[in-house]
Amino acid sequence: AQSVTQLDSQVPVFEEAPVELRCNYSSSVSVYLFWYVQYPNQGLQLLLKYLSGSTLVKGINGFEAEFNKSQTSFHLRKPSVHISDTAEYFCAVSDSGGSNYKLTFGKGTLLTVNP
Amino acid sequence: NAGVTQTPKFQVLKTGQSMTLQCAQDMNHEYMSWYRQDPGMGLRLIHYSVGAGITDQGEVPNGYNVSRSTTEDFPLRLLSAAPSQTSVYFCASGDAGPTFGSGTRLTVV
Fold first, then answer.
1. CB within 8 Å of chain B, chain A residues 45-84
2. By the 8 A CB rule, do A85 and A109 touch?
3. Is-contact B24 B4, C-beta < 8 A?
4. In the A/B pair of chains, how many CB contacts fall below 8 A?
5. What is residue A29's predicted lDDT score, i.e. its pLDDT?
6. Strand B104-108 to strand B19-25: parallel, antiparallel, or no bridges (unpaired)?
7. CB of A59 closer than 8 Å to CB of A40
8. A113 vs chain B: nearest CA distance in angstroms?
9. Which residues are CB-neighbours of B61 under 8 A, at least 6 positions away?
């Protein structure tokens, strides 16, 4: 079984500040990792994903994440946030084999960017 | 290219009523899934399908039924709605980072 822990349920930051949203996972098999963003009253949009290769993954809207296998982490970072980044962010994991369409999600981190 | 289309966007049901949440995708994906989202719980997998005619249960399947007669459509049926099924339901299509629909917000009173 897999699990995902998002260490912060809420993260308030000021505009133009850097932000890190933390995600740790647990799995007995090799994994794929994902970050999704959900704007108010909308569906989930894929920000970035790690499947293989370079452990530093760049996504949309200036976000990036680093896969750390030894620490079983996949933290999301942005060097300078905007008001428009206010949203809920979900970290998710799947196995890297034949069931990679089945995601296990964390409980989400609400990022609030204040002026 | 519409991606994943869910209907309706909102629905209110009385306890014991049945209904079908519709999901259609135009990306020719084999894999489709249904999730429910509850406050503070993230998203949990209800049912999934690996192709037309093939479905299986996810983490929280009780009270829900699915079928997959075509590649494009994957409806979710609530057999007898209960207040515990009040939630936002998302359909997803594809693998290794599936595409999500915009959701159906369901309230059972």
1. 45-46, 49, 51
2. no
3. yes
4. 58
5. 85
6. unpaired
7. no
8. 20
9. B46, B47
- CA B51 to chain CA centroid, Å, is 15
Using 50, 70 and 90 to split pLDDT, how confident is the model at A1?
confident
Q: Which amino acid is at B22?
A: Q
Q: Using the predicted structure, report yes or no on whether residue A51 has a pLDDT greater than 80.
A: yes
Both tokens assigned to A29: 């098999």
Question: Residue length, chain A?
Answer: 115
Q: What are phi and psi of B15, to 5 degrees?
A: -50, 130
Pairing state between β B10-13 and A23-26: unpaired
Question: Percentage of chain B with pLDDT > 70?
Answer: 99
Arithmetic mean of pLDDT, B25-53: 95
3-state DSSP helix/strand/coil % of chain A, to nearest 5: 5, 55, 40
DSSP-derived 3-state class of residue A82: coil
